[in-house]
Each structure stands twice: as structure tokens, then as C-alpha cells.
Amino acid sequence: xxxxxxxxxxxxxxxxxxxxxxxxxxxxxxxxxxxxxxxxxxxxxxxxxxxxxxxxxxxxxxxxxxxxxxxxxxxxxxxxxxxxxxxxxxxxxxxxxxxxxxxxxxxxxxxxxxxxxxxxxxxxxxxxxxxxxxxxxxxxxxxxxxxxxxxxxxxxxxxxxxxxxxxxxxxxxxxxxxxxxxxxxxxxxxxxxxxxxxxxxxxxxxxxxxxxxxxxxxxxxxxxxxxxxxxxxxxxxxxxxxxxxxxxxxxxxxxxxxxxxxxxxxxxxxxxxxxxxxxxxxxxxxxxxxxxxxxxxxxxxxxxxxxxxxxxxxxxxxxxxxxxxxxxxxxx
Length: 332
Hints:
The protein has 332 residues and is of the alpha+beta class. It contains 13 helices and eight strands.
């Protein structure tokens, strides 16, 4: 089986770069703070949802779909290795949506494992060097060797990722720790976002008295691409209106009805708004990139040499002594 997999941070910037490193194109992850249809449709198209919660052992009486009923329709893999649930939840969305550009590696994985039972699909994922390498690229630098051999005990906090995705006319919950997919209800591409909310809310309410730490992210189409297409459409309409104005006539634009030069100011305002959205998206992607660089950077050598330099100049000991005498609030 593959080498150790590390835990990774539940963050849209991390997950977006992880998908890119696995070869996926045209998608990103977006964090959600509400489950209302307006919030969800604002970032459409939404390919699937990934939910993070504090895992606890409990009995789930919901029946899983039998392998004979979903094999060949739903990509479902058992989680067979520790700490892989984040990447496995992402793959549960990606490999169940034919409208996503998977890239060569994931396309080959999906085709190769199409007829595998869920345990073998999980083994294929865990033994994929490219997927493991992409996942572990977000491993934080470890200045101290972790206790890898220590097993989690009852006091440890264990978090788990699961996916919600529409497939073949139904909404599924995909959890690699379950024996199979959980079929939640009938759903279509047009209504699954309205139907998924109550199921997630119900899960949150089960833990509400003892746990408030949850995270919900959506796998969506790359927002820069969506906004750029909207901008291009607006610019085409503006060009058509300017042409109409020069000719002194009305014209049909995009089959949406007759537009006149009086609409030009409104379109100009929309163009400004969309351009601002494009700039904001670019700034967000740059912030994500910078944060990921910091996550992957090992600052320990710098700190060590800095402290060594202070010691050589006789400045380290006075700093330590001053710190000892500082009030606790000032040391924080």
C-alpha cells in the first residue's frame, strides 16, 4: 500500500490547488457559509459539496445502496488508508461528474477502476503515486518528528470529509467509511441544490449540542472563467449597441429582444461591475497561492540561524531574560 498520507487543512485555496496538481482543469473550491438556494445558485454551476465534521462513532441505520445497484453508475471507493478522506471526498465529486475535465491521470484511474469493487477502488487511490504526492504536497513542515506510530485515542479530535453529489437522477452521500453510497432522494441537476440543504442541516443539528465546528465547501466551475464569459457577452452587447447607434436603428441582440442605445449606460455599469468581480477573483487566487507557499515553507532553518546569530552577538540571553519578566498578556 502507498506511503503515509498526511492530514491537510480544510481550506478552499488548498483544495483548489490540490485539484489542479491532480491535473483537473476549470474547477475550484468555494467555502459556503449558508445553505440557502440563493447562496448556492450564486456560484453555479455547483458540481458537488464537501462537508467536514468532527467524526464520532455512531450507529447509522440508513441502508447503503447495494453494489449491484450502483456499480457502473456511481463511483464509490472505500477509504482504506488513514488521513486520505479529504482527497477521497474531492475525488468522489470529480469522478462522478462527466462535465469536469479530469486530466489524463484521473481519467485513466476512473476508466481502469470502473468495474472494481469499492475496496479495490480505494486501494487504487491509495497506491496512486501522483495522487498521494499531490495530497502530501500540503503537508506542513515538521520541525519535530510526529508520533506516527501512536494510535488515536478517545480524547483525540478526528475530523472527517464526506461528499454530496447528484448522479443519474438521485442525490447521494458518499462516505468512504460506509459500506456503500447512501441514496438520499431523487434529484436532478436543476433541483439537487434545494434538496441537499435539509440533509446537511439535519447532520449539523445532530451534533449541535456538543460541536459547532463544521466546514462546507462546493466544487464549482472556475469563477474566473464564468465571469470572463459574462464580461465577453456584455462587451458584445455593447459593441452591437454602439453599431446600432451609429446606424440610427434598433437591432436584435442575442435573440433577447430589441435593445436601443439608451441601454448603453446600463450595460457599461454592468461591465464595470463584472470587471471588478474579475479583479477580486484574481486577487483571491493570488492570496490563495501566497498562503499555500507559506504553508509549504519550512521556516525552522531560518529561525535556527537567526537565533544562532543573536546568540553569537550576545543578544539572545537578554531577550530571554526580558521575556521571563514580561506579564503573560504581553508574551502572547
